[in-house]
């Protein structure tokens, strides 16, 4: 019988530092971490505490990405490769990425220690070995999974509930049997063929969304993992212009977050989360986007804490 997951400290550590938003390219992925951090100061969520992560090292990146690609992102040359994720390159991009990817690693390590942790990072799952895509430069999910394995985890589950498919992640773990991906998407961008390591399920109707996630998670109950890395995308929301599916409401996403954290808690499975997609548009303003991402933070804070 699996033990119930509990928080081993009085707080859920959520990682953030100022460098998360220093890139010159102004876009939701490069700015919303600060919006959410500011909102946590103005309206705290009990049990959530912000903490600065260590910066990622170049060696950690080179364990996952091609040397010429890493160099291009650091230096800006060749420019086309440095901007393959869709951002205009500037000198702030490199320190931003070392910070946000470092936050994913810190969350993974903290979750192994504490039971639950997170980072206000986003922009990971489309990044492949030698290029970026879809606002994702480096794949912090895979970098964090490698860090967890190095820290003693025997097997890592990457649970990807972003609206879009995580093809970059799938390509990076194809030869690593200790890392598996369960990917439930509603938009075909970055779609990929199934492998032994990555399963992709496309949902076309909102009524099927939560039942599909519940069924797939329940089917994993016979599998042993030491960590769940949760890519908690909010771009599935019907109000999100990039990826949203009609009929997926804020209430459904709140239920999804409860489902994921309850599933991990019931199996005694440590969980580390990052924010993933969520974009401002005509039907979703900044305040609405912040509130969507706070759903993940609130669900994390519900994990029971050891007392006595």
The backbone outline, from C-alpha atoms, is globular
Strand content: 5-15%
How many β-strand runs?
8
Computed CA radius of gyration, to the nearest angstrom:
18 Å
Helix content: 25-40%
Distance between the termini: 23 Å
- Overall residue-averaged pLDDT value: 95
Main sheet strand line-up: 2-1-3-8-7-4-5-6
Provide the fold topology.
Layout: E1 12-15, H1 28-42, E2 48-51, H2 58-62, H3 67-75, H4 79-82, H5 93-114, E3 116-119, H6 140-150, E4 156-160, H7 167-172, E5 179-185, E6 198-202, H8 209-219, E7 227-231, H9 250-267, E8 271-274, H10 286-301
Parallel strand pairs: 1-2, 1-3, 3-8, 4-5, 4-7, 5-6, 7-8
Helix pairs in contact: 1-10, 5-6, 8-9, 9-10
Structure in words:
The protein is of the alpha/beta class and 308 residues long. It contains 10 helices and 8 strands. It has helices at residues 28-42, 58-62, 67-75, 79-82, 93-114, 140-150, 167-172, 209-219, 250-267, 286-301; strands spanning 12-15, 48-51, 116-119, 156-160, 179-185, 198-202, 227-231, 271-274. An 8-stranded parallel sheet has the order 2-1-3-8-7-4-5-6, sandwiched between helices. Helix 7 links the parallel strand 4 (156-160) and strand 5 (179-185). Helix 1 crosses helix 10 (286-301), helix 5 crosses helix 6 and helix 8 (209-219) packs parallel to helix 9. The longest helix has 22 residues, at 93-114. The chain is globular. The chain starts with 11 loop residues before the first strand and ends in a 7-residue tail after the last helix. The mean pLDDT is 95.
